[in-house]
Design a protein that fits this description.
With about 260 residues, this protein is α/β, with parallel strands linked by helices. Helix content is about 45%, strand content about 15%. The strands form 2 sheets. The protein has a 6-stranded mixed beta sheet with strand order 1-2-3-4-6-9, sandwiched between helices. Strand 2, helix 1 and strand 3 form a beta-alpha-beta unit.
């Protein structure tokens, strides 16, 4: 049975984790399927990707009923690296539990929407484990150093309201008639659809520039990748289309070139 499903509607795709009996905790199969879905998204002509869970939960972490060893953590790091490296924006639609590995998935996405019932935690100290340093760095950059220390050194969860206050969550979504999971997914789908109409070269270049800020040692664009993306955007047909559409008072039709 498939645990992580991939679906695509036009230029927007969705990865959904569905293992409700374990609050969508990932085992080896689910991790492999998550990585396969990320690879599939990378090979498609997408403009945005939404990552979500099933049954009003995002992901409760790694399934510790199946041994989590260093091989598992290496496979996880490869999957999350590929998710974070996608050249288009990614949106996490979060309800309920977002714990441990679930928080790592959310951190690997560019944008995070959550319902008020969502809870974020990195409770590795309760298990005698550690997360890799990329997770520590990304958590501190997104949530702030103080919040990262609280989460890592107390193993206590952070509420959605607090996560929103410190910037870990970009938007809180109130639950509707369909429940919190359906509400936040609808909001994420709507956001991804809006993003899909923006200029792809501008988005991928801006995402690259943001990612470069996380380089160790403070090296920014040492290999000239951001400059190349900057010059490509300024020389693109999309820039011509954007200016023409602005003058004609219509929505632009960007083609990513």
């Amino acid at each position: 049975m498939t645990i992580v499903s991939y679906s695509q509607d036009g230029a927007v795709a969705r990865l959904r984790i569905s293992r409700p009996e374990r609050r969508n905790a990932l085992n080896h199969q689910a991790l492999d399927e998550l990585h396969d879905g990320v690879r599939r998204a990378a090979a498609a002509e997408l403009r945005a990707l939404v990552v979500t869970g099933d049954d009003d939960q995002f992901c409760a972490g790694a399934d510790l009923k199946e041994l989590e060893d260093l091989a598992f953590t290496r496979a996880l790091r490869a999957a999350l690296d590929d998710l974070a490296a996608l050249p288009f924006p990614t949106v996490a639609a979060i309800a309920g539990a977002c714990m441990g590995l679930g928080t790592q998935i959310a951190l690997s996405c560019d944008l995070r929407l959550a319902t008020p019932d969502a809870r974020f935690a990195v409770p590795v100290a309760k298990l005698g484990l550690m997360v890799d340093h990329w997770t520590v760095q990304r958590l501190a950059l997104l949530a702030g150093h103080s919040t990262a220390r609280w989460m890592l050194l107390t193993a206590e969860p952070v509420t959605a309201a607090e996560a929103h206050r410190v910037g870990l969550v970009h938007q809180l979504v109130e639950p509707g008639d369909g429940g919190p999971g359906a509400s936040v997914l609808a909001a994420a789908d709507e956001l991804a659809e809006r993003i899909s109409h923006l200029a792809p070269l501008a988005l991928s270049g801006s995402k690259l520039g943001l990612d470069l800020l996380e380089r160790p040692g403070g090296e920014v664009d040492a290999d000239g990748r951001y400059l190349a993306a900057f010059e490509a955007a300024w020389a693109s047909d999309d820039l011509v289309e954007g200016r023409r559409a602005f003058g004609e008072r219509r929505s632009p039709a960007f083609r990513g070139r």
